[in-house]
Amino acid sequence: MLTGKQKRFLRSKANPIQPIFQVGKGGVNSNMIKQIQEALEVRELIKISILQNCEEPRHAVAEDLAKGAKAELVQVIGNVIVLYKESKENKEIKLP
Fold first, then answer.
1. Which residue, 25, 64, 70, 89, is the most exposed by fewest CB within 10 angstroms?
2. Beta strands 80-84; 45-50: pairing state
3. What is the mean pLDDT of residues 49-77?
4. Are 93 and 13 in contact (CB under 8 A)?
5. Is a pLDDT exceeding 90 seen at residue 95?
């Protein structure tokens, strides 16, 4: 689990990042989770946007993605989810 200080640090790191995935009408599926896991291994910190046509509530989508990718949910702000997972091979972010 991340502490409040770590979450604040990660939120500031995530600010300039553009979302690289979109969750739409289909919702969350296993293929999307697999791609998100791979992206987290490379980047550690990613943003995912939730489109207007997504039928699930955004917090439910965020929890599904975090659980599926075994990542930490840093933040849900508006229609954007921020996920963090420490990389095994490409570790760049040092948490406070």
1. 89
2. antiparallel
3. 95
4. yes
5. no
Q: Is the pLDDT of residue 90 over 80?
A: no
pLDDT value at position 91? Answer: 83
CA–CA distance, 1 with 30 (Å, rounded to integer): 24
Q: What are phi and psi of 13, to 5 degrees?
A: -65, -35
3-state SS, the chain, equals CCCHHHHHHHHHHHCCCCCCEEECCCCCCHHHHHHHHHHHHHHCEEEEEECCCCCCCHHHHHHHHHHHHCCEEEEEECCEEEEECCCCCCCCCCCC
**Cα distance between the two ends of the chain:** 13
Structure confidence at residue 87 (pLDDT): 87
The encoded tokens of residue 65 equal 């993605």
